[in-house]
Amino acid sequence: MLNNFPLWPEQASTMARNVDALYIFLLIVTGMMALLIFICLIYFAARFRYRAGVPAEQIEGSHALEITWSVIPFLIFMVIFAWGAVVYFKERTPPADATEVYVVAKQWMWKLEHAEGQREINELHVPVGRDVRLIMTSQDVIHSFYVPAFRLKQDVLPGRYTVEWFRATKPGVYHLFCAEYCGTQHSGMVGSIVVLEPAQYEAWMNGGSTGPLSATGEKIFAELGCSTCHRSDAQGRGPNLQGVFGKPVQLADGRTVTADENYLRECILDPGARRVKGFQPLMPTFQGLVSEEQVNALVAYIKSISQAQPGEPAKASANGATPKAKPNGSQVQ
Ligand code: CUA
Predict the structure, then answer these.
(1) Element (H or E) spanning 164, and its range?
(2) pTM exceeds 0.85 for this model
(3) For the CA of 189, the nearest atom of ligand 1
């Protein structure tokens, strides 16, 4: 409906309609309010204007009127609040089975890596109609991942993960902007989201990959010697990481945290911060020794060994589903 209306960007995600509906509601409410105020202003200016010889009439006030002009705006604001909260929670809650893409921002480019292993720079290929979850971090300053056509914007911060998700509804190429001033070439930190039909996407996916991200992570896990302490037989000096992702973890200081992406990330870069109960503070920090991409790969690997079905051997497959990528050559830019 709004596609030909130049003030709105294209609607290309499931979120776009929700955001636009709320926005249009706000425009209508504020527009009507402004109109009402101006009508009253002009009417009262005429009705109560100065007339020679007529003394000003004193009006003592009206409870009914005051209650009316307090209660009606209150109800309108509560509608805006409730509606906004519903849209916000929808935007902030990624579906559990979403495809995952790791995003690393740096001055001044976007580096994207699919869980299946495809890497891209300033370009993200996604299939139409599938939920995509972005796990984002920055290797320098604050950036912001902004796709107007998806009504999607989230700051990307150094030192932690932030997450956002979308489901594209229309094939096409859409602008990706950095929406946080991040240095001299901030305005050049742009890219595109390429939304493909499922068949085209499969073809693109099979075009080349270095193997699933979790397999890269498994290799790094072995190379850095993580596997000597984090053994799967509970005899290691570090916690067994099988099945740990998404589960509550008892900490040495008595707290309990959920082993999410941010927790795993922190354990790699600052192992002492939230140490697991029952283990000595033996683990060295890997800050400066691993790149953001390697941390992502390690996190993807630990997730993959947590997602195996009961009774099935833990395997480093991308997302528990059939891995689509074939390691034949490379498409890395
Ligand atoms: Cu990155 Cu602005």
Answers:
(1) strand 162-167
(2) no
(3) 1
